[in-house]
Amino acid sequence: QVQLVESGGGLVQAGGSLRLSCAASGLTFSSYTMGWFRLAPGKAREFVARISWSGRSTYYADSVKGRFTVSRHNANNTVSLQMNTLKPEDTAVYYCAAGSRPYEIPNINPSNFGSWGQGTQVTVSS
Predict the structure, then answer these.
(1) In the β-sheet with 18-25, what is the strand arrangement from edge to edge?
(2) Per-residue pLDDT tens over the stretch 78-117
């Protein structure tokens, strides 16, 4: 059974930074593309970032490009999201997710990610 557990959320002032982590178990982590998504009140789930199984390929939503960095450490089954220059509109619950199939870079549609964590709240005050 796949388990994804996010941590690192919290309250931060605009312009500040946070680093989210996601610990994975129950899958061959190094074979799966990992993604970060977020869900804000009244909005649809939004893609944030994606990193391929090897870490060589990354992709970001335009809204976070240049501010957020996704990375992974396959030796300890973790993926991270470094968030800098945070804005109030970044406030959301952030989720990590694993691609549905190994050695595939899925489309950023959430339906292409088969396993999800429980989420961690990020609140950015103005």
Answers:
(1) 3-7, 18-25, 78-83, 68-73
(2) 999 999 999 999 999 999 999 999 999 999 999 999 999 9
